[in-house]
Amino acid sequence: MPIGKGTEAMKRMTAVIFVVFGLGGCVGQRMNDGLGDLVGQNIKVAVARLGYPDGQRTILGDTIYVWSASHNTVMPMTSTNFATGMVGRVPFSGATTNTDFVPVNLNCAIQLAVDQNGTIKSYQWSGNVGGCSPYANALRAAQSAPLGTTSSSKNFGGEDWKRATTLCRERAHEVSKSGNQSFPNSFNSCMVEQGF
């Protein structure tokens, strides 16, 4: 009878939930700090840091600028199951390792409310680690840049993003094949290395 199967399945699901729905403290803090620094500045500063917005709308005289990213991918989730039993009167035990590829959606949305003078009044954002890391990294890079300079931002849905995601997924898969259960950390670290 398998022992530990439920425990491994729960670990896998927890990792998926963390990456897809949760936000690591670092990413969440960087988003709040970076977007908070934009309040009171001209919208052009946000465009310099985040790239052109994906859309805008007017509500009660304010313009709401929206940046969003959404990318479907798969994440390898490796589990190890242990079994013990009897063959006749001889006890046995064994372990199997299985890697499943779980579909996930990496997403992030940022909204900046701007007054008629072009000054940013407030912000809202939502998303998960995989989706918001690129924006958080762009905001962090801009914070560390000398005053009067801007950092370059990559196109999160473009070819660089797809190339980096594929590369990092492959690297993380190799990590998981080695028996290491740190896929979310290896994936996120790789994306940071790639500039996202």
Structure overview:
Mean pLDDT is 77; it is low at 1-6, 15-24 and 146-153. It contains 6 helices and 5 strands; from the N terminus they run E-H-H-H-E-E-E-E-H-H-H. The chain has helices at 5-20, 25-38, 43-50, 129-144, 159-177, 183-193, and strands at 2-3, 55-59, 62-87, 90-114, 120-127. It is α+β, with helices and mostly antiparallel strands and 196 residues long. The protein has a domain at 2-39 and 72-103 and 130-193.
In short:
Helix content is 43%, strand content 34%. The chain is elongated, with a radius of gyration of 21 Å.
The largest sheet is: 5 strands, antiparallel
Structural class: alpha+beta
Tally of DSSP helical segments: 6
Rg result:
21 Å
Poorly predicted regions are: 1-6, 15-24, 146-153
Which oligomeric state applies? Answer: single chain
Overall, the morphology is elongated
Let me know the number of strands: 5
Averaged pLDDT: 77
The amount of beta strand, in percent, is: 25-35%
* Topology order in helix (H) and strand (E) letters: EHHHEEEEHHH
Helix content: 40-55%
Q: In angstroms, what separates the terminal alpha carbons?
A: 44 Å
Which key terms come to mind for this protein?
5-stranded antiparallel sheet, disordered N terminus, 6 helices, 196 residues, alpha+beta
What is the strand and helix layout of this fold?
Layout: E1 2-3, H1 5-20, H2 25-38, H3 43-50, E2 55-59, E3 62-87, E4 90-114, E5 120-127, H4 129-144, H5 159-177, H6 183-193
Antiparallel strand pairs: 1-3, 2-3, 3-4, 4-5
Helix pairs in contact: 2-4, 5-6
